[in-house]
Amino acid sequence: MSANSLQISAQPYPFRCDLAHTALVIIDMQRDFLEPGGFGASLGNDVSGVRAILPTLQILLAAWRQASGLVIHTRESHLPDLADCPPAKRLRGEAPLRIGDRGPMGRILVRGEPGNQIVPELAPIDGEWQIEKPGKGAFHATDLQARLQAAGITHLLFTGVTTEVCVQTSMREANDRGYECLLVTDATESYFPQFRDATIAMVVAQGGIVGWAAASNAVLAALPAGSTSGRSNAV
């Protein structure tokens, strides 16, 4: 095993990767989904449940940065003119605030607005990727695939919200493109805990048909202690 090789205790069996070819993907940890007055709350959800993973994600992110692993942040966001937001998406449901409407944190899910920013606890730093995605999946209508290929990334660790929608969609997109994927179980959450649990079960079923799942402690245990080896965040 090389100095960068990791073996993470996971379901349905150990997840093996090389730090230099692995990225930590943090899905949509933005104010619109995690804070009162945002899009998640406008749909009638209690956001306190999804905020509960923040301490775990902070620890995991700090350790991944210390190991010089690549970090990718995504935001579900739309252009100000909503040209990339299909009417079927904007008009679905009966929420009092729709995508593009002005709320307490600016226009809902619109790029550059205060509510569309990553929460301060997980704010990106220089060199970390920020992917603006107009859909649920991180690969749809973005340059993520091209950037991953250029960087030699083959393995992805998924975290963020919500487990059954944007996280699962992105993980399935990645699986179809040949990436080996692991879902960090206590660093992802849903407004509906039963949906989170069901998603984890689906991911690891049938010998890991979508990928692997592991708790953050297992990821941390696999990282080289105090290491600054691995890849640079820059491409």
Helices, strands, pairings?
Elements: E1 5-8, E2 15-18, E3 22-27, H1 31-34, H2 39-42, H3 48-51, H4 54-66, E4 70-76, H5 87-91, E5 102-103, E6 106-107, E7 129-133, H6 144-151, E8 155-161, H7 163-176, E9 180-189, H8 193-208, E10 212-214, H9 216-222
Parallel strand pairs: 3-4, 3-8, 4-7, 8-9, 9-10
Antiparallel strand pairs: 1-2, 5-6
At a glance:
With 235 residues, the protein is an alpha/beta fold. The protein has helices spanning 31-34, 39-42, 48-51, 54-66, 87-91, 144-151, 163-176, 193-208, 216-222, and strands spanning 5-8, 15-18, 22-27, 70-76, 102-103, 106-107, 129-133, 155-161, 180-189, 212-214.
Oligomer kind: single chain
Class inferred from helices and paired strands: alpha/beta
Rg measurement, Å: 17 Å
| Mean residue pLDDT | 94
Q: What is the approximate shape?
A: globular
Q: Please tally the helical runs, counting DSSP H or I stretches of 4 or more residues.
A: 9
> Segments where pLDDT lies below 50 for 5+ residues?
228-235
Name the helicity range.
25-40%
Strand content range: 15-25%
Strand order of the largest sheet: 7-4-3-8-9-10
Total beta strands:
10
Described by strand count, sense and barrel closure, the largest sheet is: 6 strands, parallel
Whole-Å distance between the termini?
A: 25 Å
What's the helix-strand series?
EEEHHHHEHEEEHEHEHEH
